[in-house]
Design brief:
Length: about 675
């Protein structure tokens, strides 16, 4: 096997996430560029993708339209648009108008569930359109890789293929290689690697050795591996195993049928026709469909998973596949519940994902076989996913994990994309209350414009839906002060002009991470602890302006974290009395009264007993400091509250603060 190595690419390094393709293709299908995606239109289409939020062409860095060419390549590679036919292979007219949407592309646009999307990719990847070294035949990387993995399973009992094994003997080979020799090399590599004292130097040496027959950068072995494996997984037949791959157990029969190792001698234009019209799958055959369903039923019975398909006809391949998809959905939900139950043991990894998100993305390598990554262009989806995992780790929810989230997951429970609009991000329902969590990666001054209205509307809808208290958490890498000001008031008018005052607390991701970690380190993770934090943070929103409220929230998080450490209170919280503007006071002797003013001392300017109105708010030139007891006057400086002016039915009196309000005769509402 000394011939020159060529790495095949099922995806594109400029479009590493295949889950983004459908969204981009939907934009393309409704654009003026259908069938006109060449030359000057490349830059125009790239700008169009940027305008629609599909890509981020920051400051116009790409002026050549390379983004558009990468998207076009993936559309054509998967048969969603008609690819270009070379003259030696036939005429464009024999296939279809260049870059026009194909019948298969129309089917792809209609795929409204993740399994349906996976099936589209599976059909595309099953087509043999990659050239063999002889230049005459074509092969399917997916089929070839499945053949390798099934032979591995035959010899070892497991189809697992590690990242380094894929890098050196997966995407560097094709059906011109002898299958048994490829597997021999993989097992030899595996055995020597197990015996190696240090994995990183071993891998580096092996890559250098294999790279002697490769004329490009040796880094490509691993870089292309991560991208190729991600594309192969979207077929639904393969899933993640560590940093490598394994065949999905419920798709084993299908994998066996697909693992045709011989290359095809069919002309490429015939392969294109197959691709563009939707290639057949083994499951389109009645017997294969029935065999796959029977195997799935057997697996579910072995796992004691309840199901019922007695209401479904099973006479045609389509009907059988519908029944199988129902069972696969039940199985996926069962697996998700098990995944959710394990999240309390994964809190440290969840913490690490938060750290990567705070940095704006990146990778954390634990060792050569274990790493986590947040792609920089997928941070919104990963933020929702990470906070979902955090909620599952805290546990005790009465709704199912798949009812909590609004975003889609792949078969490895990784995020496919961020949730769509129209509803909140995470609905965590507990026995006595509900917490609605909204997240954003936005940190600019537009944060309030983008999030202020939707978040309040979603919390309002939840208040009307749930017959229990609803609390809102808004989590972002950075909280814009205008956003905090909007949530500080938290006012929303529901249908019929019903005024609601919503409980929404803005937290930075770093603050939430700090509290999340403290709960688990103290072994005190519980939803009630999260509710207590929310209530404490919002306790001073009426008396503090937005900058001071943000500071108070940060101080409160730090103090709450310290309480987890030794179980003691930072200060005597029981005696803290916060008096909001216009508060109603009930006195045992004088009856019901209302706060209308505050008396404060400002020693810096020798100002004593300055009277300030306090029926609706403090005057604009005066603001509360985060401690809730100190005032800051633009002219007089810092001062202390001495008393509050109360209007009773027959008396106007000043009650000393805080002493008078700590006594039993006083009740504040």
């Amino acid at each position: 096997m000394s011939e020159q190595i060529k790495i095949w690419l099922v995806g594109n390094t400029g479009l590493r996430n295949p889950n983004r393709i459908q969204e981009g293709f939907s934009v393309y299908a409704n654009s003026p560029f259908v069938g006109n995606l060449r030359d000057e239109n490349e830059v125009a289409f790239m700008n169009f993708l940027n305008e629609k939020g599909i890509i981020q062409n920051e400051d116009g860095k790409d002026e050549s339209g390379s983004h558009a060419r990468k998207w076009r390549l993936m559309f054509a590679r998967n048969g969603f648009i008609y690819p270009q036919v070379k003259k030696k292979d036939g005429t464009q007219e024999d296939l279809g108008a260049l870059d026009d949407i194909t019948p298969f592309g129309r089917s792809f646009l209609k795929a409204d569930t993740y399994p349906a999307v996976q099936e589209c990719y599976l059909r595309a990847m099953s087509v043999e359109q990659f050239p063999m070294p002889d230049g005459k035949q074509y092969f399917s990387p997916l089929r070839w890789l499945l053949a390798i993995m099934l032979e591995l399973e035959k010899r070892t009992g497991s189809s697992e293929l590690s990242r380094i094994e894929f890098a050196l003997w997966g995407h560097t080979t094709n059906p011109s290689y002898d299958l048994n020799e490829v597997v021999d090399n993989i097992l030899d590599l595996r055995e020597r690697r197990v015996a190696a004292p240090a994995k990183r130097p071993f891998d580096k040496k092996e890559i250098a050795e294999r790279g002697k027959n490769y004329d490009k950068k040796a880094d490509n072995f691993l870089d292309y591996s991560d991208m190729n494996m991600r594309y192969l997984r979207i077929s639904g037949v393969l899933q993640r195993k560590g940093r490598g791959l394994i065949i999905v157990p419920t798709k084993h029969v299908l994998a066996e049928k697909l693992a045709k190792t011989t290359a095809s001698a069919e002309p490429i234009i015939e392969q294109y026709k197959l691709l563009c019209n939707g290639a057949p799958l083994p499951t389109d055959n009645l017997e294969v469909a029935k065999s796959l369903l029977d195997d799935l039923i057997k697996q579910m019975k072995e796992r004691h998973i309840l199901f019922d398909i007695s209401d479904l006809p099973l006479n045609t391949p389509a009907e059988i596949n519908i029944a199988r998809q129902r069972l696969e959905n039940i199985l996926a939900q069962t697996d998700e519940i098990q995944y959710a139950n394990d999240q309390c043991n994964q809190w440290e990894e969840i913490r690490d994902y938060m750290t990567l998100l705070i940095k704006g993305g990146g990778k954390l390598v634990y060792d050569e076989d274990n790493a986590i990554e947040v792609p920089k262009d997928e941070t919104p989806a990963y933020l929702e996913w990470t906070l979902w995992r955090a909620a599952l780790a805290i546990d005790h929810m009465v709704n199912k994990p798949y009812e909590v989230r609004g975003f889609k997951l792949d078969s490895d429970f990784m995020p496919v994309s961020a949730a769509g609009g129209g509803k909140g991000d995470l609905y965590c329902e507990f026995s006595d209350f509900t917490i609605l969590t909204e997240v954003t990666m936005s940190t600019s001054s537009r944060q309030e414009a983008m999030e202020g209205e939707p978040v309040r509307r979603h919390v309002s809808d939840a208040v009307l839906k749930y017959d229990k208290p609803v609390y809102g958490m808004f989590i972002a890498v950075r909280i814009d002060t205008n956003t905090a000001e909007t949530f500080r008031h938290g006012v929303w008018y529901a249908k019929g002009d019903v005024k609601q005052r919503l409980d929404i607390v803005p937290l930075t991701l770093a603050q939430f991470q700090k509290y999340f970690v403290a709960m688990f380190e103290a072994n005190k993770a519980a939803p009630e602890k999260l509710r207590d934090l929310i209530l404490k943070c919002e306790s001073r929103r009426d008396i503090l302006e937005a900058p001071a409220w943000k500071q108070y929230i940060d101080t409160t998080v730090s103090e709450k974290v310290l309480e987890f450490g030794d179980g003691t209170k930072i200060r005597n919280l029981a005696k803290e009395v916060i008096i909001p503007p216009g508060a109603v006071v009930r006195h045992a002797v004088f009856g019901e009264g209302q706060v209308v003013g505050v008396i404060a001392n400002f020693p810096e300017k020798n100002q004593t007993e300055v009277q300030l109105p306090y029926l609706r708010a403090l005057p604009d030139e005066v603001s509360y400091c985060p401690d809730g007891k100190t005032l800051f006057h633009e002219r007089f400086g810092e001062g202390k509250i001495a008393a509050f002016m109360i209007v009773f039915p027959n008396h106007i009196m000043n009650l000393c603060y805080p002493s008078a309000f700590e006594k039993a005769p006083i009740l504040i509402e």
